[in-house]
Design goal:
By secondary structure, the chain is of the alpha+beta class. It has 2 domains: 289 residues, Zn peptidases (Aminopeptidase, 3-Layer(aba) Sandwich); 124 residues, Alpha-Beta Plaits (2-Layer Sandwich), CATH 3.30.70. 35% of the residues lie in helices and 23% in strands. It contains 9 helices and 19 strands. Strands 1, 2, 3, 6, 7, 8, 15, 16 and 17 form a 9-stranded mixed sheet that branches. A 4-stranded antiparallel sheet has the order 4-5-19-18. Helix 5 packs across helix 6. The protein starts with 6 loop residues before the first helix and ends with a helix. It binds zinc ion (ZN). The site of zinc ion has 5 residues, from helix 3.
Amino acid sequence: MSTEISNAELLDAVSAEAPNAFEFLSSLVSRPSLRGQEQSAQELVESVLSDLGFAVERIAVPESIGDDALAGVPAMSYAGRFDVLGRTLHDGGRSLLLNGHIDVVPVNSTTWASDPFVPVVRDGWLYGRGAGDMKGGFAMAILALRALRRLQSDAGRRNLLFLSVIEEEYTGNGTLAALRAGVTADAVVLPEPTGLNILLGGVAITWVKVTIEFGGGHAESSDRLASPAQVVARLIEGLGQIEAAYNKDPRAPYDTIAHPYNVNVGVVQLGEWPSSVPAVAELEVRVGHPDDVSVAQVVADIRAVVAETLSAAGSPYFDVVPHGFKAQGYHLAAEHPLVRQVAQAHASVHGVELSTEVLGSTTDARYYVNQLDVPALCFGPVVKNMHGSNECVELASIEAGAATLARFLLDYFAEDTDSEVG
Ligand SMILES: [Zn+2]
């Protein structure tokens, strides 16, 4: 038997601790942990982990990490930026790592109903940038740990690590730095927003930057010059052909997704003055692609489309370089015992069977699965509008997920005791 704590006791403890966890979530969302501004949110995580009895340390990300074959391409210095690691410091035995990313994506829209960094609860949902991706997951994990503490259970946190990383949203270098510093465990759970499903895998992602030097000119001459705006429009159309090619006959398990490999033109910068023909175009493109297409091949494929598009416009100078993500695809087998154990915990507490899925995106789980052969999966709350306006997380799902996670932790560490004894 895993433990004498009943599911009813667990659910009671979770709802008793929920207000505190939601307050933590609000506080976390109100600290805008955009790229390069993670410190204040990391300090809050440090204090919450200390409060829960974790030994807390900071893990620096070396400036040289960009040279690591598994790193993404950094866009800024790592000075003063760090991961936070908490350990329960119990002696040996089976270990578990909870990994969450503190960074959030930028806000560029005015279509938010309220300030994205002033969290507000409406109809059971907490709104704010990062509330869904993935500060709600932090709240879920902290809630599970608080509930276990309330029940005076050390059994659910015997050899537990909690890692809060930077830069999940564009390189993965925060998790990579921790991994290179030797931070790992026998299994990893990432409380990413999965709608209370189990996320098992993601596709390869490469970011590329395309720069075109058109040279510019006076608007008076624009009828005689190739229109950079039209050239860029044709280029975007051309990128669609790459996307179509990548999505032809996707291999398992990505054949379960209608369109696994999205080529997203995320940033287009063109021109500087209404009366000037644009001199420079810059596109930043996120390319989802099959695992057997290398980063170099992605760059070559895009280069070919750019060259062909530009040949009809006088072949101006251009460059295509990778920046940000160079992420490999990854996949944990649905039959893995870790998957079964999380699913059983959820079924035990809620009487609901969890489903598993893969998505056309990535998570830091890839490093554990691919590089260390350590099982890693994502399980977290129900959210809406990730990366968009009015991003929000459903508070009830944070409670539900926390109860599952707490049950899982009890079972996970108890199994260790059982096997050691047996
Ligand atoms: Zn995320």
